[in-house]
Structures are given as structure tokens and as C-alpha cells.
Amino acid sequence: MSSVIQSGPPAHELPPKKIEQEAGNEIMGDGGSARSTVLDRLTRARGWIALGVLLGIVVVIGVVFAGSGAQDPLSPDNAAPEGARAVAEVLRDEGVVVVRAESLEDAIDRLEGPDDTLLLHDPNTWLTAGQLGNIGGLADRTVLIEPSLGMLTQLANGIRSAGVVPADVEEPLQAACADPDARAAAAVSPGGLSYRGAVTCFPLPGGEGGRPAGVFATTADARVAVLGNGDIISNGFIDEQGNAALALRVLGSTSTLVWYQPTENDLAISSGPVDPLSLLPDFVNPLMIWLLITALLAILWRGRRLGPLVTEPLPVVVRSAETAAGRARLYQDAGSVDHAVQTLRAATLNRLASALRIPPSSSRATVVAAAAQKTGREFGDLDQLLNSYSPRSDAQLVQWSQELEKLEQEIRRS
Questions:
Q1: Strands 256-260, 116-120: parallel, antiparallel or unpaired by DSSP?
Q2: How far, in Å, CA of 143 to CA of 181, rounded?
Q3: pLDDT digits (tens, 9 = 90+) for 339-366
Q4: pLDDT tens-digit series, residues 210-268
Q5: Rounded to whole angstroms, how far apart are CA atoms 333 and 256?
Q6: Residues 73, 65: contact at Cβ < 8 Å?
Q7: Among residues 347, 341, 349, 397, which one has the least CA distance to residue 369?
Q8: In whole angstroms, what is the distance from residue 139 CA to residue 148 CA?
Q9: Are the C-beta atoms of 131 and 272 separated by less than 8 Å?
């Protein structure tokens, strides 16, 4: 039986060279088996490996683009609707050198020539007054996008903020000024902020009788221009109205455009903690002393009164319902339907806000949306009832007030 199992002579009977050859074959066989096992496992996991490599590439691209500001609003590298890559590319095609500054120091270094334009967009007000003073006056022309009060004070002498453009302004704003860039654009999209300057363009409607406020203003020497609506240069609005004409003429007036959008890295770091008292103006200490003396004199004066204070009842107590009825009769006698409508509308919106459990300071649109969601009615119908409808006669006023009361009851019961 043993002679059948053994295929050769025992190991101790083989010559030394034969033993080494057999051992080498055995080792090579084990190595080939291990290699094939590894390759087989890699083949089965090739899908997961490809997915991991793709995920790594996406992460690297995201980090690179995030660092370069390609996702920031109004960035010259952002191709999204809120970006401004389109106007930057057109300016480059027209021969303008568009340079994106990465920091305040970079922007100052880029503004070396006398024929430069600086675009400054700082919606988060990262720059301090000192930093704005360092960059102010370096460019031949400075274009401020939706600037704050501090930016106007430091960089745009003579231009003042006039508030937010009302949401109900939907028609294009006409140039209505002598500025050649604005006249070439003719009209732009509404929105953003409004300003007043030596030259104010694209005024808001309804500003008759006073100094107009518009979304575009310049200083007397036209070296500083303020654009209150950043959407005008964005990819999503650049092709509307005369937005492209205004953006290209204002930003492309010189051979070089330095596009600077400050970040949190531009924050000025103080050398040590600041004493809060040092931030107070000089007149605070004398004012506090004067208030203290005044308070002491008031205490001495009131302290000389003899006896306690005596309360006396009013001779007549008028109920609030009677005053409301009296005011209603005055409106009726004067035929002042408009005043009655405004009073009813304001009171109804306040009561609806309370019933819907939303802040009383909420906008009309917010109240209408909440009421529509609560009652299941159409938003347009409720907006017409609460905001747009204006009765012209006593009969229409009574019918409209009944509809308002019915809406209140419906909301309180639901």
C-alpha cells in the first residue's frame, strides 16, 4: 500500500540539488496562489474602488473651487445664476484685463496703474473703516456694489443711502439722468437698494416733489459709482433690459478691472483686548456727570412734597366701543371711505396675525400666505380681499367688512 501512495523516493533519499528544486517549486506555487487571490479580490471590488476614486476627485474639485470663490454670489468665476461670470467673460473678450483679488493686500498690489477700475462688493462688511481708507483713491474709478453706510462714508463722498427698493416696484427703471452709461442702458431691472448722489439714475417711481432716489448714483467727478442692485451684473439678469449695457460700460471703462470681494480672511485682528470705555465718545463723561447732578436735583425737588400722592377718578369714563363708533360716524359724515378702508384693513391684519400665531410685525404677504394655508383658500383670492380690494361706496364697504369678518370667523373656528 505504501508503494502506491508514494510517487517518489523519500525526501531523505533525494540528492541535495533535488531537494532545493522541490522546495523552490513549492514556494513559487504559494506566491502565485496569493497573487491570484489578491487580483481576484481587486476585480470583485473594482466598482467600489472606482466609486472611491470618483468621490475623491469630487472632494478635491470642491475644495479647489471653494477656495477660489467660484461659488460666491457675483463672483467672476461663478457660472451659476447668482454669479457674474458672463459679464467677466464678455469684458475679457473686449480686451479688458479682469483680475480677481484674493485679499485686501492683493487688491492694493493690483491697483498699480492709473487706468484701473476697482469693483468692491462687501455684503458682509468684513472691511473696517481703516481698511477702506487704505484702498480708497487707488483706482481711477471705483464701483461699489450695494455698499453699506460705512463704505459710502469712506469711499463715496456725497452719496447717501435711501433705503430698500420696494418689492411692489416691478416695472423696469428708466435712466432719467444725464450720465452717458445710464443713458446707453436706457432701463434696468428693479430691486436692491437705492441711493442719492450728485448724479442719480434710474429713479424709483413715485418720488415726485423731492430729491429722487435711484439704484445707480455717481459722485460729481464720476470717479465713484454706486450700483444698488447687484442682480444687474449677475448671470441670471444680465440679459434683461439694459443691464448688460450698464454693466459693461461701467466696469469696462478702463483697461484693467480689479474684482475684489472681501472674505473673513480680511478681518483686521487687534493686538490685544479693547477697553469698552475707550470706544465711547469724549462727551460721554461730562454728560454722565450732568445727568447725575440733574437726577440728584430731581430727587431733592420731588422729596419736598408733603404727604402721599392722591389719585382722583376721572369725571367721565368712555368705553372703547363708543370711541370706535364715534370715529366711524365721523368717517361716514365726511364720506371718507378710504380712511375707513385703511383702518379696517390694518385692524383685520393684526387680528388675523394674532389668530394665526405669527408676529404682528409680519408682512402682509406673510399673513395672507398663513391665512391661505389655514383656510385652504387660494392665495390670490385672499390677497385680493386683504390687500388689493378698495371699496368706493358705503355699500361696497359694508359688504367688504362682512367678508373680512367671515374670514376671521373661519380662521378662528378652524
A1: parallel
A2: 13
A3: 888 888 888 889 888 888 888 888 889 9
A4: 788 999 999 999 999 999 999 999 999 999 999 999 999 999 999 999 999 999 888 87
A5: 68
A6: no
A7: 349
A8: 19
A9: no
Distance from the Cα of residue 141 to its chain's centroid: 25
What is the pTM (predicted TM-score) of this model? 0.52
Distance CA 22, CA 11 (A): 10
Cα separation, 9 vs 162, whole angstroms = 107
Residue with cell 513559487: 28
Region 20-26: mean pLDDT is 45
How many Å is the Cα radius of gyration of the chain?
38
Domain boundaries, the chain: 85-264, 321-413
Is the pLDDT assigned to residue 204 strictly greater than 80?
yes
Check: CB of residue 387 under 8 Å from CB of residue 352: no
Secondary structure string (H, E, C) spanning 363-388: CHHHHHHHHHHHHCCCHHHHHHHHHH
Residue among 399, 124, 88, 67 at smallest CA distance from 256: 88
Asked if 264 and 210 count as a contact pair (C-beta separation under 8 A), the reply is no
Give dist(CA 201, CA 174) in Å, integer: 8
| Contact status, residue 179 vs residue 215, Cβ threshold 8 Å | no
